[in-house]
Amino acid sequence: MAFFERIGVPLKTERGNRVFPLSDSAHDIANALERFGREKGVRMLHKRVTALRASDGALTGVVAEDTEISCRSAVLCAGGASYPGTGSTGDGYALAKSLGHTIVSPQPSLVPLVSDDDYCVEMQGFSLRNVTLRVFDESGKLFFEELGEMLFTHFGVTGPLVLSASSHMRDYDKHKYHLSIDLKPGLSEQQLDDRILRDFKKYTNRDFANALQDLAGHTMIPVLVRLSGIPEETKVNSITKEQRRALVRLFKDFPVSVSGPRPVDEAIITSGGVSVKEINPKTMVSKLVKGLYFAGEIIDVDAYTGGFNLQIAWSTAYAAAQSLELE
Ligand SMILES: Cc1cc2nc3c(=O)[nH]c(=O)nc-3n(C[C@H](O)[C@H](O)[C@H](O)COP(=O)(O)OP(=O)(O)OC[C@H]3O[C@@H](n4cnc5c(N)ncnc54)[C@H](O)[C@@H]3O)c2cc1C
Predict the structure, then answer these.
(1) Low-confidence ranges of the chain (pLDDT < 50)
(2) 323-327 — which CB contacts under 8 Å span 24+ positions?
(3) Which of 4, 9, 125, 252 has an alpha carbon within 20 to 30 A of 193's alpha carbon?
(4) Is residue 307 within 6 Å of ligand 1 at its C-beta?
(5) Which atom of ligand 1 lies nearest, measured to the CA of 80?
(6) So what's the pLDDT on residue 174?
(7) Same domain flag for 68 and 204
(8) What are 284's strand-pairing partners?
(9) Are residues 131 and 253 in the same domain?
(10) Could you tell me the residue range of the domain that residue 118 belongs to?
(11) CB 3: neighbour CB atoms within 10 A?
């Protein structure tokens, strides 16, 4: 933070210790870094690196389109494969592999999830706040549990909770994941049942479908009614205790099946990448090729949203730069 303030980007800290430029503009960060580089004498080529050269286990050069650069050291920091429009097309993996590095299979992470449940489309644009999202696999193993916000879309679900959950989900071919949303995490089943009973007393002569307005959003009510199995025209005063229990369970365990992630180009980050086993964690230098360094998302490390991925990029770049200086 001190560094960015010093190079002319005032910052602000928002809820959850998330730090942003005061202007909310990512360009300010990029421009400041570029300005800082130029001031320090960095020459920028803006060319695509197409090959790395090495001989006898040591780096000898970099090929950038029509330009061949002889060098003893290079930092490979070409990012992942997400949002290719920002330049990170996955090139870096092939470059690292060409010099013998192992690439842990790149996968979309911090990515929206696709669901075949038709009610997601029906509720598209509808957001849930203060819900608990849980992710289970086919064996019922819990992978993720957190309170927060999420959103239904035309393809499935997204939003902060879903993005975070996705970073715990891998191998969609092997696992059949499903989501469980606790729509009332602040209430125990008993408390929720009492609450529903109170509402049912209040709306005693109404049809069931018209008695949920205090408990659920307008968009969600038809879906809840359908999934509850209680016919919508049932009069509230004739709903049985068993039916009410089923409704409570639905509020506490609203199901969404997952058929997979959205494509990697829609993922905030790419997990996987150059195996950390082949990188010295202090210097970021390759254990296989002398003079080859790595920084940022190309490495097989990833984290939640909230600045942690940028921190990975900056911290690894800093470590690489420090050790380059000593060369
Ligand atoms: C929409 C979005 C929002 C995000 N929000 C956050 C956030 O709020 N907080 C957070 O911590 N992280 C966030 N991230 C993730 C974060 O931006 C990345 O993890 C981080 O930028 C990775 O830094 P990097 O330098 O390793 O790679 P990148 O920032 O991807 O940079 C890689 C660079 O390498 C260049 N390159 C690639 N291939 C070649 C080649 N062959 N030759 C020459 N150059 C090449 C690319 O043009 C690019 O400039 C967000 C990502 C996205 C897409």
Answers:
(1) none
(2) 323/282, 323/283, 323/284, 323/285, 323/293, 324/73, 324/75, 324/293, 327/72, 327/73, 327/291
(3) 125
(4) yes
(5) 30
(6) 87
(7) no
(8) none
(9) yes
(10) 112-261
(11) 12
